[in-house]
Specification:
Chain A: Keywords: Cell membrane, Membrane, Symport, Transmembrane, Transmembrane helix, Transport. The complex is a heterodimer of chains A (545) and B (127). Chain A has 20 helices and no strands. Chain A is an all-alpha fold and 545 residues long. Classes of the chains: A mainly alpha (545), B mainly alpha (127).
Chain lengths: 545, 127
Amino acid sequence: MISLGSAVLRVPLQTVESTSVGSPVLNISIFGAFVAITLVIVLRASRNNKTAADYYAAGRSFTGGQNGTAIAGDYLSAASFLGIVGAIAINGYDGFLYSIGFLVAWLVALLLVAELLRNTGKFTMADVLSFRLRQRPVRIAAAITTLAVCFFYLLAQMAGAGGLVSLLLGIDDRLGQSLVITVVGVLMIMYVLIGGMKGTTWVQIIKACLLIAGAFIMTIWVLARHGFNLSTLLGAAIETSGNPAITGPGLQYGVSALTRLDFLSLALALVLGTAALPHVLMRFYTVPTAKEARRSVVWAIWLIGAFYLFTLVLGYGASALIGAERIQAAPGGVNSAAPLLAYELGGSILLGLISAVAFATILAVVAGLTITAAASFAHDIYASVIRKGRVDADGEVKVARRTVIVIGLLSIAGGIGAQGQNVAFLVALAFAVAASANLPTILYSLFWKRFNTQGAVWSMYGGLGSAILLIALSPVVSGGEKSMIPGADFSVFPLSNPGIVSIPLAFLLGWLGTVLSRTVEDPMKQAEMEVRSLTGVGAEKATDH
Amino acid sequence: MGFHPVEPPAGSGAAVDFTEVQQTEQFRELRKRHRSFVFPMAVFFLLWYFAYVLLADYAHDFMATPVVGNINIGIILGLLQFVSTFVITMWYVSYANRRLDPIAAELRHELEEAAPEAFIDPAGGTK
């Protein structure tokens, strides 16, 4: 996830020492067991994958509880776990601020988006956005923003997988890491190809349970060593770090006026980005009714909320029991706080379990992103735009499966190429692009009667373009010692997160495009969308047969 | 046939006049109840979230004020963000169950009875 500020997720590949803690053999065995068990489940789940609804939306057969758990599995990426724990361990309170943004963002999804979207769409975000506007331009724009968000998110996860897993398994050369990325990619292609949405969902459910259970056990363990008293724990963290400021905000983002503004920009992208992430939105189609969609979000909010509360304890626990200096000196730097804490508490076995969970986390998130991107390409671009709807569901699913392979190969190549790149940069871009390119159009088309095609197209392309352009011109890409292109300097835009500019701009463009256009959209379609979105008519029949 | 986002079939509009449904007292009541809850609530939690973010961003000393032992105002306000998120979630669910679902279900059944061919897929799937 985006949280990590720019320093946190960057695994210093070159400095990884071969002296990793724990036993790589044990780590690999536990991970192998996870892969074996999930593959069997995916195979069993895929036996009745027949129609497009089966493949993209798991036959709309999941319950709210199952889907909510899968959403948590989709949302809590390795960066959430390793990144936030590390950020709190090193920067104290500033790390906790991310946890809060990630959680509060779910209220946007719950109140404004989830149920209405479930009632109006079929498989993808573009279904909803193009419902009452002109099909072709809006669908193409929505598919492009979906693919852009998925691709950046995917690249970040793959690059993270290389660095992270090498650290956990003790593989430190570039070739070995490329091999790890390839293995992750091939496994992910297999899950998605065989299992479709059903298989992917089960992988996410299993992973969410493992991750939350693992974090819970460690939390209780840390608290037990501090008399189940948060104040004692904070005291121990202050003592180890020798800096009382660790329990208050400002260590990371309080440095200058610019970093403060940057934090504000990030906070905006976080709270508005979540409800516009296409892979999260697509999960709402796997349940039969709007009521189950609501239940999913409620489950997700409880699970994700609980998890982020654990990260507070784990972060300060790592700070108290291990100390910032030892964490930063370890292979993997800040990202190693959680594994080191596991080793400190439960030795090699707990470390092995936590490492396997971290690997599983990446795999599940990557699978979720891949199926979203494949569905969007096959359903929105191939079936609707290229073939203009003249294709049967079988043909569409065939294209979706081929797209999975292409996306898988692309992300393997991208992941290998992006090794050692600033991973947080790619994830931040995904969140900012989602909030800028998708959210204004989602909200306008659900709630603003007059909204029209020109507004949608301006808002989506304007949001996408400005977010990407501002990041390209930011210090993340050039001009600083931590930049992607360290030699050059074309950083005209001083903030590393574009949200504070690109999100309001996209809302403005949506409004401007609409009022400047003389086209009036079909009032029948607007009425139909509004009636369907609130009543669920025509979308709730799956329970009847 | 019913809703198909790729090629809106001509039959869909003919079977059900959605603009008429949109004008009914019942539907307007549903929309009013939905919006009168979600809009103020969204404004409230966004203001509360950004108030918190601004305090954490610009009022470090205030946030670092100790309250109980090593627990300071910042930690308490942060935990309150969790509490408010959980409370709003439960509040909305109870509101939707009581005030939204009954009307939505009634409207849905009326529409489906009036024009079954528009919404029910003969193959038995979701349309």
